[in-house]
Specification:
- The chain is built from six helices and 13 strands.
- By secondary structure, the protein is of the alpha+beta class.
- The protein has two domains: 116 residues, no CATH class; 193 residues, Glucose Permease (Domain IIA), CATH 2.70.70.10.
- Strands 2, 3, 5, 6, 7, 8, 10, 11 and 13 form a nine-stranded antiparallel beta sheet that branches. Strands 1-12 form a two-stranded parallel ribbon.
- Strand 6 and strand 7 form a beta hairpin.
- The radius of gyration is 22 Å and the shape is elongated.
Length: 322
C-alpha cells in the first residue's frame, strides 16, 4: 500500500480523532427538544463510530483509541436515551431544522451503506486457503484484508487504480497486509516515523505459511524510506511458494534476508526471510496473497481468499502469536 505522509496524517488525525471526538462532545452537550431529534443525532454518532470502528486504520492510530471511541459512544448513547425519554416524540421544526434532519439522515444512510459493505467483505464466494500465520511472538494486526471486490475501504488491493492499471488486481483481490503492534497499540514508535527500525514489524522473521516448492524469488530491491520515498511499482523482494494447485506470494521482504532459492522445498513454519520495506510501500509490513495456479505469470492468476489457522484476516483483525 502507498500513501503520502501528509495524506495519512490528515486521514488518521481527522477520521480517527477529530471527527469522532467532536461528534461525541456535540451529542453529549446538545439540547434536544424531542425524541426524534435526539435519535437522529444518536444515529449520526453511532453510524460514524461503527464505520470507523470497522474500516479505520487503527494499526496507525492505535487500537486502544479504537476501543475508547466505542466505549465513549456507548456511554453517550445511554445518557442521551435516558435524557430524551420524557420529551415529546416530535416537535415541528423551522427550515434550518428540517435541513439539519435531512443532512443527518443522508449521512446515516451513507455510513450504514459503507458499514454493510465492510461486513459483507468478511465473506467470500469460495472456500479460503488455510495457511499458517507467517509470524511468531507478538501481536499482529491486519490493516488491509477481506473481499476487496465488495469493499475497497476494507481492502484496497482489488480496486486500487495503480493495481488495475498494471492488471495485477485480480490476483490481489484477497491480498492481506500485516503489521506488528507495539505496546501503545500502534505499529511504530512515534507518528509515521521515517526510520524503518522504528516499526515493530521491521526485521521480523517470516515463516513459510505452507508446505511447497519455491517457484519464484526476487532479492534486488533496497529498503525504501517510509512515507517519503518514490518506490518502484512492485512488491519488492518476494518469495512465491507453490503448494498443490495454488501459489502464495509474500512481498516487501528485506534485501539479503531471503533464505530460499527457486526449486527449494519448504515446510510450513520454516524461516524463509525477514520483513523489510522494499517495493511500492509506505512502511514496513508483509504483503501476502494466495492465487490459483494457471498459465502465464503469477500476476495473472486468480486471487484466492486466505484464512490463517482457521481465522479470517479481515481489516483490523488481531493475531496473538506465542
Amino acid at each position: 500500500m502507498r500513501f503520502g505522509y501528509f495524506t495519512m496524517l490528515t486521514l488518521i488525525g481527522g477520521l480517527h480523532c477529530l471527527i469522532p471526538l467532536t461528534l461525541i462532545m456535540w451529542t453529549w452537550g446538545k439540547s434536544y427538544t424531542s425524541i426524534s431529534s435526539g435519535c437522529i443525532q444518536l444515529l449520526v454518532l453511532i453510524s460514524y463510530s461503527t464505520f470507523i470502528y470497522l474500516m479505520g486504520s487503527w494499526a496507525f492510530a492505535s487500537f486502544y483509541l479504537r476501543y475508547l471511541i466505542l466505549i465513549m459512544t456507548v456511554a453517550v448513547s445511554i445518557r442521551i436515551l435516558v435524557h430524551i425519554k420524557t420529551l415529546p416524540f416530535f416537535v415541528t421544526s423551522h427550515f434550518l431544522g428540517w435541513a439539519g434532519y435531512g443532512v443527518g439522515v443522508v449521512f446515516i444512510i451513507l455510513m450504514i451503506y459503507l458499514s454493510v459493505g465492510a461486513l459483507r467483505a468478511h465473506f467470500y464466494d469460495e472456500s479460503p486457503v488455510n495457511l499458517g500465520f507467517p509470524f511468531k511472538k507478538g501481536v499482529y494486526a491486519v490493516f488491509e484484508g477481506g473481499n476487496g471486490k465488495v469493499s475497497n475501504l476494507m481492502n484496497y488491493h482489488f480496486g486500487g487504480s495503480m493495481h488495475k492499471g498494471a492488471r495485477t488486481n485480480l490476483s490481489m483481490r484477497y491480498a492481506v497486509d500485516i503489521t506488528k503492534l507495539k505496546k501503545w497499540g500502534n505499529d511504530a514508535d512515534g507518528f509515521f516515523p521515517s526510520e524503518n527500525s522504528k516499526y515493530a514489524i521491521f526485521n521480523q522473521v517470516v515463516y513459510s505459511p505452507c508446505d511447497g516448492v519455491v517457484l519464484d524469488v526476487e532479492d534486488q530491491w533496497p529498503n525504501e524510506t517510509p512515507w517519503i520515498g518514490k518506490p518502484p511499482y512492485n512488491v519488492g523482494n518476494h518469495i512465491l511458494i507453490l503448494s498443490n494447485d495454488f501459489g502464495v506470494l509474500m512481498g516487501h521482504l528485506q534485501q539479503g534476508s531471503l533464505l530460499v532459492k527457486v526449486g527449494d522445498k519448504v515446510k510450513k513454519g520454516q524461516p524463509i526471510a525477514k520483513t523489510g520495506n522494499s517495493g511500492w510501500t509506505t512502511q514496513p509490513h508483509l504483503h501476502i496473497q494466495a492465487m490459483r495456479k494457471s498459465d502465464g505469470t503469477f500476476w495473472g492468476w486468480e486471487g484466492l481468499p486466505i484464512f490463517f489457522d482457521g481465522k479470517n484476516p479481515v481489516k483490523n483483525s488481531l493475531f496473538f502469536e506465542p
